[in-house]
Amino acid sequence: MARYELVKRSVALITLTNPPVNALSSAVRHAMAKSMEQALNDPKVTAVVICGENGRFCGGADIREFAGPLRGPPLVPLLDAIEAGEKPVVAAIEGVALGGGFELALVCHYCIAHFKARLGLPEVTLGILPAAGGTQRLPRLIGIPAALELITTGRHISAQEALKLGIVDQVTEQNACEVAVEFALRAVAKPLSSRRVSMLTTPCPPDLDALLEVVTMEVKKKARGVMAPLACIQAVRAAATMPYSKGIKRESELMATLFNSGQARALQYCFFAQRTAGKWTLPSGAQWNNSKPREIRSAAIIGLGTMGRGIVVSLARVGISVIAVESEKKLLETGKQMVIGMLERDAKRRGVSASLNLLKFTLSLQDLKDVDLVIEAVFEDMALKKRVFQELSKVCRPATLLCTNTSGLDVDALAGVTDRPHLVVGMHFFSPAHVMKLLEVVCGPRSSSETIATAMSLGKRMGKVSVAVGNCPGFVGNRMLKPYMDQATFLLEEGATPEQIDKALEDFGFAMGVFRMSDLAGLDVGWRIRKESGLTGPDVDPKNPPRRRHGRRYCPIPDMVCEQGRFGQKTGRGWYMYDKPGGTNAKPDPLIQNLLEMYRSRYAIQPRNISDQEIIERCLFALANEGFRILEDGIAARPEDIDVIYLFGYGFPRHRGGPMFYASMVGLERVLERLEHYHQAHPDVPHLEPSPLLKKLVACGSPSVQTWREHIKTMHSHL
Ligand SMILES: CC/C=C/CC(=O)SCCNC(=O)CCNC(=O)[C@H](O)C(C)(C)COP(=O)(O)OP(=O)(O)OC[C@H]1O[C@@H](n2cnc3c(N)ncnc32)[C@H](O)[C@@H]1OP(=O)(O)O
């Protein structure tokens, strides 16, 4: 857990050895305490260097240990002892120094960082604060404004930025450990008092209160209802106003308020869920660690609409040659100009040169004959997509992977028109595709494990969080969205307003409520799909009573909004009104209010007062209920996959953990009871009927979300 060696006859080299990230587990803390004691007591030792095995200094506390009782020596006294020691201690930072790892570096009297190293205090992203002196030492070292920014955002910084801020003493391109040993030898006998950061006085700006107020406002705006960043601000205030001995107590009190909170549990769950999601498994036994992805050097994108353009940018910026195809010259030229602009802006922001030489634009599918992989991103129309796939089947070499960016159509039906169904897979990007991190990899029943592995690995290469899902209408994300949005529109019928529903959802933590989000995405797409499926428009079966389709409740208000040409932000009118087409400042529109009143009076609906609690329960429990069905159907392998999809694709607040984790936090029994209640009140809404899996989990005593998988006995997985 920590290796102790004597090097250069007088330097104690302590190496943390806890792969993969040398986390400060109880065993590591114990070994470190012993090693430090040995180094400080051995008269041969004149200096100490601390480093991490395998080119990684330290990834911080062992997050897995947070779930249990604290074992082993606490970190704060250990770090205080290192700082107070009479022998110079040098941190040799390679890879990462994060959280407790960064706090360890802060107590070392000197820091040497490899030029590729990254440092940061990401505790806030786990719902806690840097409680091993980080909130007290960092402001003393780099000042309040810079420390506040790093602590409240959890941002990682480069070694170069750490040098500029005065956190590290030297950045090297050589082996940081060897450089640190030489540095340590030179530091022997130099006075250490000025190197003990806890002894420094925090440089305090004259307008401290005003600064803290501004940061508090920013944090509240960015992360509504999130506790940890506010606690971080209070801890930093203590660093400015109290001596270290008192500040560290305040830090510990604030940590106690966060440590066992639901938010901390949710955020730590998200950390592991994100990592679990990449570990896909098929019933055949093929999985992430036994299926080799193909190397992708070249790709083609068909369709240069919003999605296609974003996908081209995502591929080109990781060094993949891309051929972009459009059907008309004008569309091709417009798409080309937009892609080039996007890539240039992206490159400027990242301080690199734009990889324009990797791009080719063409009107001919014949140009795709040699590419490794094609992603079709044409209009959401099955007949059109089938034509494209048939054509690709003829044009591309037999080994080319054929992928579709459909957001909900049958991937297997597309595979069926090709000569290589095993090489067909869905790659469902989210708009804008070069920004959004989520990728649903849709596994058809005939997709080979190599094909899935390749799509998952390509997603990772593009910086996406890829989740393997089964093939059904809407896959996971969009399938779950329907009951959620249905509830929102039913609530409108019953007496709520778009702004009331949005406010309840935004207070819950969503960046945007359902109606503001729909206005942003555009209302016409859903309207067209509803018309095509005969739910509205001339093809509606006249035998349907009003407000019912296929024997279920149906709300036609979204169709009525579209019939007025209100398609959302792009037309300047939607559920809200905007200053101009394309405007983003949403204001409640009296015309929508009138429409709702007329609608309710036409159908003799007596509007009632609807509480925020009912809004949250009906929208979110219906969402989770569909998630349980998705698990039963084998469309998602684990609740973590569903949660990751909602966190990264649909703006579900991270501090709530995702819809499935949220349901588990509320209590499955309570969710079941509320769904039963609402289903009784609305028996014509099947989505409110509790799913068999939810009932089964409650009958099994509501086990923790991480163990649900053991209770899902899916007859046939669709993965
Ligand atoms: C009182 C003292 C309090 C201190 C507070 C803290 O220190 S809180 C912890 C702060 N540290 C972090 O938040 C860092 C979390 N880790 C990361 O950001 C990344 O893992 C990494 C270190 C940047 C490495 O990224 P990379 O992409 O290379 O690897 P993975 O993310 O896939 O991780 C590999 C496996 O390691 C597990 N893991 C990572 N960090 C920790 C950790 N701190 N504790 C426990 N486990 C950790 C991760 O879950 C992966 O595990 P697998 O089983 O392989 O999925």
What does this structure look like?
This protein is of the alpha/beta class and 719 residues long. The protein folds into 4 domains: 2-259, Alpha-Beta Complex (2-enoyl-CoA Hydratase, Chain A, domain 1); 298-473, NAD(P)-binding Rossmann-like Domain (Rossmann fold), CATH 3.40.50; 496-501 and 513-602, Orthogonal Bundle (N-(1-d-carboxylethyl)-l-norvaline Dehydrogenase, domain 2), CATH 1.10.1040; 612-711, N-(1-d-carboxylethyl)-l-norvaline Dehydrogenase, domain 2. It is 45% helix and 12% strand. It is built from 27 helices and 19 strands. The strands form 4 sheets. Strands 12-11-10-13-14-15-16-17 form an 8-stranded mixed sheet, sandwiched between helices. α14 (382-395) links the parallel β13 (373-376) and β14 (401-404). α4 packs across α5 (144-153), α4 crosses α9 (228-241) and α9 packs antiparallel against α10 (244-259). The chain is globular and about 95 Å long. The two termini are 39 Å apart. The mean pLDDT is 96. The structure holds ligand L4473FGL. Its EC number is 1.1.1.35, 4.2.1.17, 5.3.3.8. Belongs to the enoyl-CoA hydratase/isomerase family. In the C-terminal section; belongs to the 3-hydroxyacyl-CoA dehydrogenase family. Pathway: Lipid metabolism; fatty acid beta-oxidation.
What descriptive keywords fit this protein?
binds ligand L4473FGL, N-(1-d-carboxylethyl)-l-norvaline Dehydrogenase, domain 2, NAD(P)-bd_dom_sf, eight-stranded mixed beta sheet, 2-enoyl-CoA Hydratase, Chain A, domain 1, six-stranded mixed beta sheet, Rossmann fold, alpha/beta, EC 1.1.1.35, 27 helices, 12% strand, 4 domains, 719 residues
